[in-house]
Design brief:
Rossmann fold; alpha/beta; 7-stranded parallel β-sheet; binds NADP nicotinamide-adenine-dinucleotide phosphate
C-alpha cells in the first residue's frame, strides 16, 4: 500500500489526545504534518518530541482556531513550510457539560465557536489550497454525541450535530473538485477531554490510536470510494 509521502497534513488540536495520535500516525505513514493548538509551550513540546523520529516533516504553530486571522496564519505558515496542503484534519474541540440552565453564554460560545465555526474557518481557508493540488481530503473528528443527545450535553450535542450536517453538506459541495470529506464519530476515548483523566482503568474505552487508524484507513481508500461517515465505539463498555 503506498504511503502518504509528499502529502501535507494539518491537524488542529494535534498536541495531545486523539490529535496527537493522528499526527503521529500520519508521520509514520510518510506525510509532512503541521500541528496547531492554543498553547505555544504545548506545540513546541509536541513538535520537539515528534521531531526525534520525523525530523523536518513535523512542524507546529500556536493557533486558536476560533480566531479567523490566526487560522489564516496557520494555513499560510503551512504552505510556506511545506509547499501546499493535501489533508486537513479538524480535530480541536472543547466540551462543557451542564444543564442548559447552568451553562454560561461564554461556555456555550466557546463550544460552538471551537467545535463548529472554527471548522468552517479552517475549511474555508484550506479549500483553495486543496484545489491548487488538484484535490485532497478533509476529515472532521465529530462524536457519537453528534447523533445521540444526552442530559447536560446541550452545547456539545449542538456543536457535533452541526458538525455532522456541515460535513455532509460540504462533501456534496466539494466532491467534483476531487476533495473528499469524511467525518468520524467515536464513542468514549481515553483522553483528558472535558476534564477527564487518562487512566488505565479506562482501558475499556477506545484509545486515541484507534481513531488515528480510522483516519489513516480513510486516506488509503481508492479515490472511487468515499466512506463519508464512520461510527466507532468501545466493543465492551461497562454494563449498566
Ligand atoms: N475523548 C473522547 O471521549 C471523545 C469522544 C468522541 C469524540 N471526541 C472528539 O475528538 C477530538 C479530540 O478530542 P480529545 O479527546 O483528543 O481531546 P483533548 O485531549 O482535550 O485534546 C483537544 C485538543 O484540541 C486543542 N484545542 C482546544 N481548543 C482549541 C482552540 N480553540 N484552538 C486550537 N486548538 C484547540 C487542545 O489544545 P489546547 O487546549 O492547548 O488548545 C488539544 O490539543 C474532539 O473533536 C472531540 O470532540 C473525543
Amino acid at each position: 500500500m503506498p504511503g502518504l509521502e509528499n502529502k501535507v497534513a494539518i491537524v488542529t488540536g494535534g498536541t495531545r489526545g486523539i490529535g496527537k495520535a493522528i499526527a503521529q500516525a500520519l508521520l509514520e505513514d510518510g506525510a509532512q504534518v503541521m500541528v496547531a493548538s492554543r498553547h505555544e509551550v504545548d506545540v513546541k513540546g509536541s513538535v520537539d518530541l515528534l521531531k526525534k523520529k520525523a525530523g523536518a516533516r513535523i512542524n507546529g504553530i500556536a493557533c486558536d482556531v476560533r480566531d479567523y486571522g490566526q487560522v489564516q496564519r496557520l494555513i499560510e505558515f503551512t504552505v510556506k513550510q511545506f509547499g501546499g496542503v493535501d489533508i486537513l484534519v479538524n480535530n480541536a474541540a472543547v466540551g462543557h457539560f451542564a444543564s442548559v440552565a447552568d451553562i454560561s453564554p461564554e461556555q456555550w460560545c466557546q463550544v460552538i465557536d471551537t467545535n463548529l465555526t472554527a471548522v468552517f474557518y479552517c475549511c474555508h481557508e484550506t479549500i483553495p489550497h486543496l484545489k491548487k493540488r488538484g484535490g485532497g481530503y478533509i476529515i472532521n473528528i465529530s462524536s457519537l454525541a453528534g447523533k445521540n443527545p444526552f442530559k447536560g450535553g446541550s452545547a456539545y450535542n449542538a456543536s457535533k450535530f452541526g458538525l455532522n450536517g456541515f460535513s455532509e453538506a460540504i462533501m456534496q459541495d466539494l466532491r467534483y473538485d476531487n476533495i473528499r470529506v469524511s467525518y468520524v464519530m467515536p464513542g468514549s476515548v481515553n483522553t483528558r477531554f472535558g476534564g477527564h483523566e487518562e487512566e488505565v482503568s479506562n482501558s475499556w474505552k477506545l484509545a486515541p490510536e484507534d481513531v488515528a487508524r480510522v483516519v489513516i484507513d480513510l486516506l488509503h481508500h481508492d479515490p472511487r470510494c468515499l466512506p463519508s461517515c464512520v461510527e466507532m465505539r468501545p466493543s465492551k463498555p461497562p454494563k449498566k
